[in-house]
Amino acid sequence: MTVTSESRPAPTAIALNCTLEASPHDSSTQRMIDEVLAALKEEGIGGGDSIRVVDHAVAPGVSADAGDGDAWPEIRRRILAADVLVLATPTWLGHPSSVCQRVLERLDAELSNTDDRGRAPTFGKVAVIASVGNEDGAHKIIADLSQALADIGYTLPAQGSVYWNGEAMQGSDYRDLEAVPDPVRSTQRMAAANAAHLVRLLARDPYPGPDASEEDA
């Protein structure tokens, strides 16, 4: 049965905040997330929940469920229920946070959780990347996360990432800015618009998967 746009539920987004600082500490990463989610909402992508991963007992490993006490299964459920994942991390020593790396390792389990056509549950879902920091490293972080998310099965839109780097060797943080810099704001809007466009394209024409017949493809 063909699913029409009228019967299809409105797309939603969820964000993972990979700061190292637990709540209620102020988070520059959260400020960036809030702005990206607001831009997505303007493009018709609702939901807008965010999860500060460090607040939850996410066990190390590469499984979907590490057993008693592991908070990942519920986080995973919420991630897979959304159409857009905003993965946001601070920059530490030029790299994404250790919390972000743990998220990617847990998402690795989706590679073996495939349907009858060999498609992971992340196929057809879109990822947006955000990074903040007062040191260099954003381009490398975006490159690393893009590769990892694409391997896991997410699709990344054109210019689907946004970052802010403060002046080197200074103490300013993104959360301390009085206003969002114009280049950051315009990049947030571009990433959101392209992500929303891609979500709708993939909803209308899903990936066939490697095990689809030539006729189905």
UniProtKB/TrEMBL annotation:
Entries under InterPro entries matching the protein: Flavoprotein-like_sf (IPR029039), FMN_Rdtase-like_dom (IPR005025)
Protein name, please?
A: Multimeric flavodoxin WrbA
One Pfam assignment: FMN_red
Q: Which residues form the NADPH-dependent FMN reductase-like domain?
A: 22-163
